[in-house]
């Protein structure tokens, strides 16, 4: 793999081409399969609205959300925290990664495998080289570790702990493979949906943090 930096809208388009629900005809894995067609269609309608909200967010809201996440995470005893290195349109958690590392926590970042497999996570530090991953992501050149807590990106959420992802099923597979790990979603308050359509293999969140509040589901 080669050193890389984000290249903007092209990478976002590439992710959607891979992750959109119409690509979900293939099985997630031997124990996770795709959503029924009606559920997939309903999710796609919600994705369109939620993505518009996410991309139109006010400047500075990422900083507020990172501060709230740091408060939540540093109040736990979790040492290995899986974070997310953002794509161009996503909430930027890089300041949070630095804050957690400075506080002595092990920051892990996802390494996206071939489709149908759960994510693996590699150790990141501010000195770690970043390598090109799948679908425009960046991956630290560090050892693979198992997280105690996983931060979960999303496009939408409801107040029962359901999340709306991009459609690739990576985090659902990952959380299913790590049943004792806490899952903390993060989003804008405006990404809330009254009731999300759910499939049989969707994994609910333990907790969700917005720039306004923290919701606990377990």
From TrEMBL:
<dbReference type="Pfam" id="PF01812">
    <property type="entry name" value="5-FTHF_cyc-lig"/>
</dbReference>
<keyword id="KW-0479">Metal-binding</keyword>
<dbReference type="InterPro" id="IPR024185">
    <property type="entry name" value="FTHF_cligase-like_sf"/>
</dbReference>
<dbReference type="InterPro" id="IPR037171">
    <property type="entry name" value="NagB/RpiA_transferase-like"/>
</dbReference>
<comment type="similarity">
    <text>Belongs to the 5-formyltetrahydrofolate cyclo-ligase family.</text>
</comment>
<protein>
    <recommendedName>
        <fullName>5-formyltetrahydrofolate cyclo-ligase</fullName>
        <ecNumber>6.3.3.2</ecNumber>
    </recommendedName>
</protein>
<keyword id="KW-0460">Magnesium</keyword>
<keyword id="KW-0547">Nucleotide-binding</keyword>
<keyword id="KW-0067">ATP-binding</keyword>
<dbReference type="InterPro" id="IPR002698">
    <property type="entry name" value="FTHF_cligase"/>
</dbReference>
């Amino acid at each position: 793999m080669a050193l890389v930096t984000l290249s903007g809208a092209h990478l976002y388009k590439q992710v959607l081409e891979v992750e959109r629900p119409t690509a979900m005809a293939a099985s997630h894995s031997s124990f996770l399969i795709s959503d029924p067609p009606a559920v997939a269609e309903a999710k796609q309608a919600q994705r369109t609205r939620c993505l518009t909200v996410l991309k139109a967010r006010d400047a500075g809201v990422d900083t507020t959300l990172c501060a709230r996440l740091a408060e939540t995470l540093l109040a736990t005893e979790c040492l290995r925290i899986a974070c997310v290195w953002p794509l161009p349109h996503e909430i930027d958690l890089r300041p949070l990664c630095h804050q957690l590392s400075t506080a002595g926590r092990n920051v892990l970042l996802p390494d996206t495998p071939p489709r149908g497999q759960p994510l693996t996570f590699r150790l990141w530090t501010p000195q770690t080289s970043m390598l090109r991953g799948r679908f425009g992501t960046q991956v630290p050149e560090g050892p693979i570790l198992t997280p105690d807590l996983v931060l979960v990106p999303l496009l939408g959420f409801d107040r029962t702990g359901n999340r709306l992802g991009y459609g690739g099923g990576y985090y659902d597979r990952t959380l299913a493979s790590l049943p004792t790990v806490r899952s903390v979603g993060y989003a804008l308050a405006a990404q809330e949906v009254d009731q999300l359509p759910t499939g049989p293999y969707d994994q609910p969140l333990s907790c969700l943090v917005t720039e306004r509040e923290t919701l606990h589901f377990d």
